[in-house]
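Please, is this right?
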Amino acid sequence: MSKPIFTRPHKIHFSECDPASIVFYPQYFVLFNDLTERWVDSLLPEGYHGLISGRRIGMPTVRLGVSFTAISCFGDDVDLELVVEHLGNRSLNLELRCVGHDVVLRMTVK
């Protein structure tokens, strides 16, 4: 059985790219942080802000495993995807992906 995927479309912006118009790799982490916030917003009435500021529950990153498999360029239409790989009592493992509308996997982080 496949796991549910939280997906949001995104158009690659000029500000996310290097001088060659290729996504500057740290920008993926900004995009994925925004995706994670939107995911929590969709699950909790108080949203991500309420989780962090109201409940004072943090979501620190402990470990990252990253694969860059294809480039994304200024103007590309992509889907940012979030899959919950494991949900525990005190931690969760996520897989985050950037997939082009051409169905090419651009980047994955676990």
